[in-house]
Structure formats: C-alpha cells, structure tokens
Amino acid sequence: MEITSRELDANLILIIFSLKKNFNVLLGDSSTFRFLLKKKMLLPGIVLTKSITHGKKKSELHDEFKSQGFILTSIDHEHGVLDSLEIYKNFFIKSRVDKKELEKFDAFFCWGDYDYKNLIKCYPFFKNRFFLTGSNRVDAWKNAKPQVSIKDNTKRVSIFSNFAFSNNKFSEKKIFSLKKEAGYYKRCPELLTQERLFLNYQKKLIKKFVNLVNFLVTKYPNYKFLFKPHPTENKNFWEKKLLNSKNLKILSQENSVSLIKASDLIIQSRCTTSVEATINSINHINFIPVNGKHGFAKFVDKISNNAKNKSEVVRLINYLMFSKKKDLKKIKKLNKRVLFKNKIPSSEKMSLVFKNLSKKINHNKFQIFFHIKIYLFFYELYYDLKSNFYNFLYSYKNINKYKFEVFNKEKLYNEILRYSKIYKFNKEIRVRKLGKRFWLFEN
After folding, report:
1. Do residues 240 and 262 both lie within one domain?
2. Structural domain tally of the chain?
3. Gap between the Cα atoms of 293 and 104, Å rounded
4. pLDDT tens, 218-270?
C-alpha cells in the first residue's frame, strides 16, 4: 500500500475476500517488504502491488520477490481510464505498463472494458495476464460511510482540488526530476512535453478555481463548503488563498468518498471524485473554464454537469442541489470504463484469481511472524534514530509521511469488522501489528 487515504478501505475489502479463500494477508509499505526480503524472512506468497512500472528501485523489488518464489500481481491505482484514447494508449500504457516489467507479472487487474481491451491490443502475447475484474477501490467507494458529522439540515457542498502538478508538495523541478529518474520520459519521451502542457494548463486553472471557491462562499452564506485538497498537494497554498470564512472548512485527512457521501453536491475539475460521486448518486459539477489539449481525464466531461464559468456553476448549483434525477446514459458510459454495476464485487473476482495462482506455490513451510516483529522493532528503531539525527542536522522534513499513516490497532480492526459485516464474513478476524507499517490479518 502506498497512500492510505486512497487505498486502505479498498485493501481491507480485498483482505476480507482473501480471508474467505483461507489466505493470511500481510499489508505493508514497499520499504518494509524490501527490508524483510533482504533478510529472507518471508515465505513465498502472492504480491499485489499498486503499479507495474515505476523506476529502478521498484523493478529491483519485483526481481527480489521473483527470486524468492513470489507471484506478482498488480492493479494500477493511477489507472488512466479517464484519459482520452490517444493519451491512454500513447502515454499511459507506454510509461506505466512496460513490457519488460509486465513479463514478471502473472496478473494485471483491469478497471473495466476500456483498459482491458486496450491493454490486450497493445500486448496480445500477454492477453491471459489481464483480468477484467474491476477495481477493489470501486467496492470501497460503494460501501464508504460518511465521516463528516451531520448535525443539521445545512446544505453541504464539497469541493475537491486536483492540482498534483501546479500545487505539489514537491517543487516543479523536483516533480520532473523524480519522473525522469523513474524512467517515465525514457519509456515515453513525448510524455515530458505533454506533462509540461498539463502543468501550464493547471497553472491557469488553479487561479480560476481559487476565485470560484471564494466567490461561492460569499454567494451562498447559508451553505457549508468543505474543501479537500488532493493528497499530494500543498495544503498551505489553499489556507493562504481561500477566504477565512465560517462556512468554509479545509480538510485533509478524510477519505474523499466518505466526504462525498456526506455532501449534497460536489464540485471538481476532471477528477476521479466525479466517478465516486456518480457511483454514489451524488450530483456533481465539473468546472472546466480553461481549454486544454492535454487529454488527461477528458472522459470526465462525458459523465458530468460541465461549467465553463462562475455563472454556469451558479445555475447548476441552483438546479442540482434539489434535483435527484439520474442520467442513465452517463451511468452506462461510466460503467464501461469503471465496472460498478456488477453483482459480484471486484474484490471477490480478484481473490478468485489469487486462489487459482496460489496453486503454483509450495505451502509446506510455516511462517513465523514473531521473528518478523522482533526484526522490525530494531530496524524501525535504527531508522527512526537515523532520521531524527538527519532531520536535526539538515532541518529535513519528510513530506512523504502523509502516504502511509501509522495506525492504531483499534482503528484497523473496527474498519475491517465493518466490512466483514457488509460482506457477511462470519469468522473471527485476528489483526496483529508486526511493525509501524506492517500488519497481519488472519482467520
């Protein structure tokens, strides 16, 4: 797991269905797995990772798993299914599904017909490795619970920003440097030009987005506005630019779909939250005041109520806030890209693939988890001391801490217990903390 706010609930649901198939499940970050593999402390199993191709370190991690007898599977959480066809084929697939890395994988889970068919066209030799299961994240979107307290009948409008380039925790130079280091521009040289276009587009859009939010807060003083920046964004930017108003609150930790479910309406700009809102029958506005030829997430326009200026936003708010009418054509279009109307949960389909793949693994040995806990205790103690010393000397701040939170056991147990009731899993679940970012789930 990389980003908990994005992936935790989806993984917990997948864990439920994996437990149903008599698996034990380890949930952790890549650095912890890397350490344990180096110490050869893990018995072979099935690995689910959030992308196939990233950089040299990720590739080496795959090699280490393979050398120790593990089976690799993946679902891409950046997915690309909202991009225009040209962008998806020429940029997303080229940069994120490299043939050399794909060869190491036994299964790649697809969100819907769109990515499934295009990936098979691109890699016909590997067609048996692509599975049309849908995404476990969609299961989480469908079953999320509102996390924002609703104490009155005040109308709530949630606004989601999506400026991962123009307002990132990293500088622009650092973003492009990291992507170059990870090999994106080597695999797809044209991507650099395309992303520079996208950066310029976001720089223009973010100014209009700020103006829109400040305008709406004043225009609708009796509505409550909840603003959530993208997890990779610099929250300080919004705290400086947005009005300090009683009816506006900037949030950061809440899961986006949980916030959507507590809303009467959402506003976004070509963001995945448009999909989450559609799946949960929450009306949404797609604010697109700037013309862009970049092609990223252009599919959102086809399933949204689009507004090109503040006047159109106001007109849509006044209509959508009180309308419950569903657009069945848009729902059908979305379901072709992102499976959500399926009767069988995507997590169930994914776990069936795991079960079939597990036949290739020798299960004669027994994993000793106590040894892992001891090793991780000393590893994390050393790592914390080293980090604190480094931070003291160089005033370094780790901006990646937002990714994988350090949970308390009760929170994880309560969440997975909630999902076990939803999916009628009646066996007792044991949750054990083996490290700060390493958890064991077992029957």
Report:
1. yes
2. 2
3. 35
4. 999 999 999 999 988 999 999 999 999 999 999 976 789 999 999 999 999 99
